[in-house]
Amino acid sequence: MRGVRVLFCYLILAGSVSAQNIESLLMAGDRSAYNEIMSALQRKDFIEAIIGLNSFIPGYSSYGDLYFIRGVARMQLNDVEGARKDFILAKASGYKEENINFFISKEYLVGRLLKDLKMEIKLDSLREYRPVIESRDTIQGALRPERTCFDVYFYNLTVKILPESKSIQGSNTIFFRTTADTRIIQIDLFPRYTITSLKRDGKDLIYTRNYGGIFIDFGEIIPAGKMEEITIEYSGIPIVAPKPPWNGGFVWEQEKKRYNVGVACEHLGASSWWPNKDHLSDKPDSMIINLQVPYGYQGISNGNLRSQTDVGSGYNNFEWFVSYPINNYNVTIYMGDFVNFSEEFTNNSGKYRIDYYVLPKNLKKAREYYTQTKDVIGIFEKAFGEYPFRTDGVGLVEAPFEGMEHQGAIAIGGEYGKSNNRRDYWTKDYDYLVIHELAHEWWGNAVAIGDMADAWINEGFGTYSEFLFAEEKFGYPEYIRVAASNFSSILNIWPIVGERNINSNTFLGGDIYNKGAAMLNNLRCIINNDSLFKRIIKDFYLKNIYRIVTTDDFIRHVRDYTNTDYTGFFNKFLYETDPPVLSCSYSIDRKNNLTFNYRWTRVGPDFSMPFCIAVNNKEYIRLNGTSFPQTFSYENVNSFFLPNEYRYEKELVPPNSFTYYWTTWPF
Ligand SMILES: [Zn+2]
Fold first, then answer.
1. Ligand 1 center to residue 464 CA distance, Å?
2. In which element (H, E) is residue 41 found?
3. CB atoms within 10 A of CB 133
4. 123, 154, 468, 587: which is deepest, by most CB within 10 A?
């Protein structure tokens, strides 16, 4: 799915600076100094604004607004810790803007994120306000012997949609092979559903339920290596998604008495609507989805439609077949009045279909909107390799919620970009929703993860694919623009690698997207060899297609290709909350000689990463920092700053120098 839209950002704060009420209180002699500070802010000379404020504030030390303004200026130097100190001073001096709490209280920040997502979760103050770990999280997220003892190779799922009661009923036959001698196995289905039958060889099975876990006791040891099948029948009322896709469940949209139904369940779990072995570590090799919908509706699911049959009682059955491994959370259904159109994508090894399912009222809009699809696929095939699910084809389906990467049946919401200005950040011709969700067919669906702790791989690579798309299509300056846009949304709430075995909600706050992509960008800058970096990415894909990868697999892969140990870098960006901090100081003497001192702090001794500086506003220079102090000297310098996501000229940025980090300054 795409990143949650963070409702606040540093730039909103900056925008509110002009609305301060201190102006009327200024003493006459201070007005020009104040105006100079404001004008420095306007031209984004944040260093000068801070220095100006430092001498201005002592005369007005009880005015919280001034600390706030200085905090905003520091924030835009990425001097985040300095900014926090100023925001705390601002609050203590009576500054009342509520948004200030985003920057000084993690509890407030996480609380607001949860509120925006309509999630009611207890937070653990001893674990940086992460959600409290409940028993049900372990039942859902942990790999116990009852799960590792068998390997699912096929699901035959039937789901009937009953829109009037907003309920579903169905059955699933689970085909598996035991991998160890076992008597008990765990499958999963949320406790809200009634199990009407659970059988093996036509005989009822004995089972107990614990939260979403169904623990089946076969009453005998089944030896390793046996092929088995069990069939479970169930019915019930699915959760109505409070905020899909991030806080998922079913969506029952209705217009003029016609339904448009969908489901999004990433992180929530596929067992929120169908019984399965609900752990990311086990995908079936293929699968059937029989979707039963009332007469007159289309039933769309993953893979290819094999048949449509009247099953009586006012229902048609749409049988879909997925001929590749598929994540449980990617299995999906859509029920609506869809019309279908298609096109073909041709590459060196042949062609495959791209199918679109859209509501009739949007057909014209959709045809125009989807003129982008082939370009996007073409660029990703070049960057990563062939589209991984060619037999099933590409599918894009109009959904009653924002995007979700359902394999071969991607959910596309948002009225084809018209409702929100196509949501892109560089051109009107491409919508990053399509780019992002298509990227997941390579990253997340073909190369998949086995635990939500590693979801940064799905979303970091998915988001970085947007950067690469911009670069391929529009050139390196546009890559920089997309990177900057993402950097400015990083919150640094928790490390982007989550906790294992608890179905960790690593999606909260969006750092696995933006910081995950920033990490890959920074790695590229460090390696400083684009063809090598791009081969690393492509080969990581090709080596792991249809497989499950971990964070360590990627770290090892990078080491194999570079013969360099980047453990310090990866630890910093993947396993720590805050980014590295560049400790800087500089002076420009009367003869215009610049002396700039810098070193990375909060890092191990082996840490090394480039960044760029700008002299005289127009000359950008790439420097490489380490944990040891270094000095850079330069002649004929009138001005100096560090380009970052708030202040940069994309055409001037030298290759592999635009990294994400924090700074600290002596002023
Ligand atoms: Zn995504």
1. 10
2. helix 31-42
3. 17
4. 468
What pLDDT, on a 0 to 100 scale, did the predictor assign at position 426?
59
Determine the Cα angle at 467 with ends 463 and 471, to 5°.
160
User: Which amino acid, residue 651?
Assistant: E
Per-run averaged pLDDT (10 residues), the chain, 667 residues: 63 52 79 92 95 94 90 95 96 88 93 94 95 96 98 98 98 98 98 98 97 98 98 98 96 97 98 98 98 98 98 98 98 98 97 98 94 97 98 98 96 77 64 94 98 98 97 95 94 97 94 97 98 98 98 98 96 98 97 98 96 97 98 97 97 98 97
Return the structure tokens found at 526: 């460090």
What is the distance, to the nearest Å, from the Cα of residue 157 to the centroid of all Cα atoms in its chain? 29
Q: What are phi and psi of 248, to 5 degrees?
A: -90, -175
SS3 of residue 16 by DSSP: helix
* Distance from the alpha carbon of residue 508 to the mean position of ligand 1, in angstroms: 12
- Phi, psi for 319 (deg, rounded to 5): -100, 115
From the number of C-beta atoms within 10 Å of its C-beta (0-12, 13-18, 19+), residue 490 rates as buried
Of 257, 238, 261, 259, nearest to 401 by C-alpha is 261
Measure 437 CA to ligand 1 centroid, in angstroms.
6
User: What is the per-residue DSSP string for 424-479?
Assistant: -SS-SS--HHHHHHHHHHHBTTTBEESSGGGHHHHHHHHHHHHHHHHHHHH-HHHH
Residue 63 is predicted with a pLDDT of 87
Question: 2 alpha carbon to ligand 1 midpoint, in Å?
Answer: 4
**425: number of Cβ within 10 Å:** 15
CA–centroid distance, 459 to ligand 1, in Å, is 5
CA–centroid distance for 379 within its chain: 20
What's the CA-to-centroid distance between 424 and ligand 1, angstroms?
15
SS3 content of the chain, % helix, strand, coil (to 5): 35, 30, 35
Residues 210 and 184: their CA atoms lie apart, in Å, by 14
Phi and psi torsions of 451, nearest 5°? -160, 140
H helices of 97-223, where? 101-104, 106-116, 135-141, 145-148
Residue 167 sits at the vertex; the CA angle it makes with 166 and 170, to the nearest 5 degrees, is 150
Query: 282: which 2 tokens?
Result: 């086990």
Q: Is the Cβ–Cβ distance between 192 and 236 less than 8 Å?
A: yes
- 70: which 2 tokens? 């200085």
* Centroid of ligand 1 to alpha carbon of 4 (angstroms): 9
What is the distance in A from the centroid of ligand 1 to the CA of 436? Answer: 6
pLDDT at 11: 46
Cα(343) to centroid(ligand 1), Å: 25
Ligand 1 centroid to 442 CA: how many Å? 11
Query: Which of 74, 68, 31 lies closest to 50 in space, CA to CA?
Result: 74
- Taking the centre of ligand 1 as the mean of its atom positions, its distance from the CA of residue 36, in whole angstroms, is 44
For ligand 1, the distance from its centroid to the CA atom of residue 455, given in whole angstroms, is 9
Q: Do residues 515 and 358 lie in contact, with contact meaning Cβ atoms separated by under 8 Å?
A: no
Q: Which two tokens stand for residue 509?
A: 């706050």
Is residue 185 within 8 A of residue 149, CB to CB? The reply is: yes
**Cα of 443 to ligand 1 centre, how many Å?**
9
Non-local CB neighbours of 285 within 8 Å, separated by 6+ positions = 153, 154, 324, 325
Could you tell me the distance, in angstroms and rounded to a whole number, from the CA of residue 403 to the centre of ligand 1? 8
Q: What is the 405 CA–ligand 1 centroid distance (Å)?
A: 7
At 492, the amino acid letter reads N
Instruction: Report whether 580 contacts 609 (CB < 8 A).
Output: yes
- For residue 326, the CA-to-ligand 1 centroid distance in Å is 16
* Bridge partners, 344 (sequence order): 353
Distance from residue 440's CA to the centre of ligand 1 (Å): 7
